[in-house]
Design brief:
Helices cover 31% and strands 25% of the residues. The chain has 177 residues and is α/β, with parallel strands linked by helices. It has 2 domains: 118 residues, FAD/NAD(P)-binding domain, CATH 3.50.50.60; 54 residues, no CATH class. Helix 2 runs parallel beside helix 7.
Length: 177
Protein backbone atom coordinates (compact mmCIF):
# COMPACT_ATOMS: atom_id res chain seq x y z
CA UNK A 1 0.00 0.00 0.00
CA UNK A 2 1.38 3.42 -0.98
CA UNK A 3 1.05 5.51 2.20
CA UNK A 4 2.82 8.55 0.75
CA UNK A 5 -0.44 9.77 -0.79
CA UNK A 6 -1.85 10.05 2.76
CA UNK A 7 0.88 12.25 4.23
CA UNK A 8 -0.22 15.71 3.06
CA UNK A 9 -4.01 15.39 3.39
CA UNK A 10 -3.77 13.34 6.58
CA UNK A 11 -6.39 14.32 9.15
CA UNK A 12 -7.65 17.37 7.21
CA UNK A 13 -11.26 16.66 8.08
CA UNK A 14 -10.78 16.38 11.81
CA UNK A 15 -11.66 19.26 14.14
CA UNK A 16 -9.32 20.71 16.76
CA UNK A 17 -9.89 20.19 20.46
CA UNK A 18 -7.65 22.81 22.12
CA UNK A 19 -8.08 21.28 25.57
CA UNK A 20 -6.08 18.23 24.53
CA UNK A 21 -2.70 19.98 24.20
CA UNK A 22 -0.97 17.72 26.70
CA UNK A 23 1.52 14.89 26.89
CA UNK A 24 -0.90 12.01 27.44
CA UNK A 25 -4.55 11.28 26.86
CA UNK A 26 -6.42 11.53 30.15
CA UNK A 27 -7.02 8.20 31.82
CA UNK A 28 -10.28 6.61 30.72
CA UNK A 29 -10.43 8.56 27.47
CA UNK A 30 -9.19 7.20 24.20
CA UNK A 31 -7.87 9.18 21.28
CA UNK A 32 -10.80 7.91 19.20
CA UNK A 33 -13.27 9.64 21.57
CA UNK A 34 -11.93 13.02 20.42
CA UNK A 35 -11.62 14.52 16.98
CA UNK A 36 -8.56 16.64 16.26
CA UNK A 37 -7.44 18.69 13.28
CA UNK A 38 -3.84 18.95 12.16
CA UNK A 39 -1.85 19.32 8.99
CA UNK A 40 0.54 16.44 9.73
CA UNK A 41 0.35 13.39 11.98
CA UNK A 42 3.66 11.90 13.08
CA UNK A 43 3.75 8.36 14.41
CA UNK A 44 6.64 7.87 16.80
CA UNK A 45 8.33 10.21 19.29
CA UNK A 46 11.86 9.12 18.47
CA UNK A 47 14.59 11.51 17.36
CA UNK A 48 13.29 11.67 13.77
CA UNK A 49 9.63 12.21 14.71
CA UNK A 50 10.39 14.87 17.32
CA UNK A 51 12.86 16.66 15.04
CA UNK A 52 10.33 16.59 12.18
CA UNK A 53 7.66 18.02 14.48
CA UNK A 54 10.00 20.83 15.58
CA UNK A 55 11.00 21.69 12.01
CA UNK A 56 7.36 21.69 10.87
CA UNK A 57 6.41 23.95 13.78
CA UNK A 58 9.24 26.34 12.92
CA UNK A 59 7.76 26.53 9.41
CA UNK A 60 4.26 27.21 10.75
CA UNK A 61 2.91 23.73 10.05
CA UNK A 62 0.77 22.13 12.77
CA UNK A 63 1.43 18.52 13.78
CA UNK A 64 0.47 15.91 16.35
CA UNK A 65 2.99 13.29 17.46
CA UNK A 66 1.62 9.91 18.59
CA UNK A 67 3.87 7.59 20.63
CA UNK A 68 2.96 4.07 21.73
CA UNK A 69 5.23 4.08 24.80
CA UNK A 70 5.00 6.16 27.97
CA UNK A 71 6.92 9.41 28.29
CA UNK A 72 9.11 7.93 31.03
CA UNK A 73 9.98 4.96 28.80
CA UNK A 74 10.94 7.17 25.85
CA UNK A 75 13.02 9.49 28.02
CA UNK A 76 14.87 6.77 29.91
CA UNK A 77 15.49 4.07 27.29
CA UNK A 78 19.29 4.14 26.93
CA UNK A 79 20.57 3.99 23.35
CA UNK A 80 23.66 5.09 21.45
CA UNK A 81 24.38 8.75 21.23
CA UNK A 82 26.62 9.97 18.45
CA UNK A 83 25.26 13.03 16.63
CA UNK A 84 26.59 14.23 13.31
CA UNK A 85 27.41 17.91 12.81
CA UNK A 86 24.37 18.47 10.55
CA UNK A 87 22.07 17.23 13.33
CA UNK A 88 23.72 19.50 15.89
CA UNK A 89 23.21 22.37 13.43
CA UNK A 90 19.50 21.47 13.11
CA UNK A 91 19.13 21.29 16.90
CA UNK A 92 20.67 24.75 17.11
CA UNK A 93 18.27 25.97 14.40
CA UNK A 94 15.25 24.85 16.46
CA UNK A 95 16.74 26.26 19.70
CA UNK A 96 17.25 22.85 21.31
CA UNK A 97 21.05 22.47 21.31
CA UNK A 98 21.93 24.15 24.61
CA UNK A 99 22.51 20.87 26.49
CA UNK A 100 24.33 19.33 23.54
CA UNK A 101 26.76 22.27 23.55
CA UNK A 102 27.08 22.22 27.33
CA UNK A 103 27.22 18.47 28.04
CA UNK A 104 28.14 16.83 24.74
CA UNK A 105 31.61 15.49 24.07
CA UNK A 106 33.13 16.39 20.69
CA UNK A 107 34.67 13.35 19.03
CA UNK A 108 37.58 14.52 16.88
CA UNK A 109 39.26 11.14 16.40
CA UNK A 110 38.33 7.50 16.47
CA UNK A 111 40.61 4.68 17.61
CA UNK A 112 40.36 1.34 15.80
CA UNK A 113 42.19 -1.84 16.66
CA UNK A 114 42.69 -4.86 14.39
CA UNK A 115 44.85 -7.87 15.23
CA UNK A 116 46.49 -5.98 18.09
CA UNK A 117 47.39 -3.03 15.90
CA UNK A 118 45.85 0.30 16.83
CA UNK A 119 45.24 3.20 14.50
CA UNK A 120 43.82 6.66 15.03
CA UNK A 121 41.52 8.10 12.38
CA UNK A 122 41.24 11.90 12.47
CA UNK A 123 37.48 12.36 11.92
CA UNK A 124 37.64 16.13 11.54
CA UNK A 125 40.34 15.84 8.86
CA UNK A 126 38.31 13.22 6.98
CA UNK A 127 35.06 15.23 7.12
CA UNK A 128 36.37 18.68 6.17
CA UNK A 129 36.28 19.91 9.78
CA UNK A 130 32.87 18.51 10.71
CA UNK A 131 32.67 16.78 14.06
CA UNK A 132 30.75 14.05 15.77
CA UNK A 133 29.24 14.85 19.15
CA UNK A 134 28.70 12.19 21.79
CA UNK A 135 25.42 12.93 23.58
CA UNK A 136 23.09 10.18 24.80
CA UNK A 137 19.96 9.66 22.70
CA UNK A 138 17.79 9.60 25.81
CA UNK A 139 19.10 13.06 26.72
CA UNK A 140 18.39 14.27 23.19
CA UNK A 141 14.83 12.91 23.44
CA UNK A 142 14.36 14.60 26.81
CA UNK A 143 15.46 17.92 25.30
CA UNK A 144 13.17 17.57 22.25
CA UNK A 145 10.17 16.49 24.36
CA UNK A 146 10.69 19.35 26.83
CA UNK A 147 10.89 21.84 23.96
CA UNK A 148 7.75 20.49 22.28
CA UNK A 149 5.68 20.49 25.47
CA UNK A 150 6.95 23.93 26.54
CA UNK A 151 5.66 25.37 23.27
CA UNK A 152 2.24 23.70 23.75
CA UNK A 153 2.61 21.44 20.72
CA UNK A 154 0.61 18.23 20.83
CA UNK A 155 2.54 15.11 21.83
CA UNK A 156 0.62 12.08 23.05
CA UNK A 157 2.14 9.07 24.78
CA UNK A 158 0.66 5.62 25.44
CA UNK A 159 -1.22 5.60 22.13
CA UNK A 160 -1.11 2.03 20.88
CA UNK A 161 -2.00 0.25 17.65
CA UNK A 162 -2.20 3.29 15.40
CA UNK A 163 -3.59 2.76 11.93
CA UNK A 164 -4.06 5.05 8.95
CA UNK A 165 -7.47 4.54 7.35
CA UNK A 166 -9.01 5.83 4.12
CA UNK A 167 -12.74 6.40 3.81
CA UNK A 168 -14.70 7.56 0.77
CA UNK A 169 -16.85 9.79 2.97
CA UNK A 170 -14.49 11.18 5.63
CA UNK A 171 -11.08 11.15 3.92
CA UNK A 172 -8.00 10.04 5.84
CA UNK A 173 -7.92 9.45 9.55
CA UNK A 174 -5.78 7.87 12.20
CA UNK A 175 -7.33 5.36 14.55
CA UNK A 176 -5.97 3.94 17.77
CA UNK A 177 -7.33 0.72 19.19
Amino acid sequence: MNQSKYIVPLLQRLSLDESSNHASIEEGKSISSHIHRTQVAIIGAGPAGLMLGALLSRSGIDSIIFERHSQSYVESNIRAGVIEQSTVDLLDHIDTAENVFRKGYIQRNILLQFDGERMCLPLTDMTQGKMETVYGQHYLLQDLIKKRLSTKQRLWFDIGNIQIEQSDTTGQSIKSQ
